[in-house]
Amino acid sequence: MNIGTWLRGARLADGTPADVHIEAGRITDVVRDPPATTTGDLDGYVLLPSFVEPHAHLDKALTAARVPNPAGDLRGAIEAMAAAAGSFSTADIAARADAALRVMLAHGTTAVRTHVDVGTSTGMRAVAALADVRERWAGTVDVQVVALVGRPLDGPGGADLRQALREGADVAGGCPHLDPDPDRAVGICLDIAGAAGAPLDLHTDETLDPAMLTLPVLADLVLRTGFPHGVTASHCVSLGVQPDEVQRAVADKVSEAGVAVVALPQTNLFLQGRRQPVATPRGLTAVHALRRARATVAAGGDNLRDPFHPMGRGDPLEVAALMVTAGHLDTVDALATVTAEARTALRLPAVAIAPGMPADLVALRGANLLDALAAADQQRRVWRAGRLVARTTVSRELSLSEDT
Q1: 205-235 per-position pLDDT tens digit
Q2: Domain check: are 90 and 179 in the same one?
Q3: Is-contact 356 348, C-beta < 8 A?
Q4: What is the per-residue DSSP string for 43-98?
Q5: pTM of the full structure
Q6: Does the annotation mark 318 as catalytic?
Q7: Containing structural domain, residue 225
């Protein structure tokens, strides 16, 4: 008979000590303030729902040393990757994606949505590679593959998107703001996704140019068509430089349409604002206006050590910390952007430390939630469906002088 497993001695996000019982992949009991009889195996840990990465580029991951971007901006990154893409074999893409997922899982991530380049010199290689990776990781990390197509959308881009959705992509994607006709491109992407019965996740307004604002066009189309498959707008940088009244109006429309927004602080802080050396903008979307409108606001790591962002640990706590530092969220709300809000954006089942919930969990070393988030200690344990899938231990030795 399966009697399950007790995780004893942890603290929950609100600071309450708790013992948590898991069985058959789910949480079956949570005992708050248990008797302090013995030291639990999670003493000194904070127990949370596992992390979700709502926006990655696993096909580009870990290429920074191979594909430099001397300009450091978005155009330079796009051009550098386009020049190198032909040299990436299916096996190479799959190997790097696999390595990146191992890093993410060790940090506590059990679901990843990854955009993959489609068309031009890449063809369908990245879709094939990530479809294979998705199957091999099934049951440990859920991987959603987004077809990131080129332009114009009314030509090769649209044809590539249809083909990618037939050949293994889960989600329709694209960059309408780079298209010759951005507003029309948004509609084309929505139509193709609708015909395929697929969700839509667009790179949206990834620019500080206030004249480029396709996000309300997307929200209008979703409202008008009743698109039922889920819509996400990633980046939405130009919304952050709009006047307050524009931010509020667009945020209200986005919320009404049920469009989720994914902020990407690491890459946008790196790429944006390089031509504005004085009072350089943060390059983030209008996080607070969107939250006031009760829109879903998630946050992701975006690029992991590639020409679009040469840094990154593949750690959602790094993203959450930037949502505190650059996005001015409090600790609890910043954590939600990489847990509950990210799950909503990807239409995944909710996870909470409560009976009946999936046992997709991460234990972080720390005395409390603020301590765990700020320190981002590498010593962690990760469960997927109640199974321990990652455990990192850290050994630290200090040698102090005799005079201290």
Answers
A1: 999 999 999 999 999 999 999 999 999 999 9
A2: yes
A3: no
A4: TTEEEEEPEEEEEE-TTTTT-TTTS--TT-SHHHHHHHHHHHGGG--HHHHHHHHH
A5: 0.96
A6: no
A7: 51-345
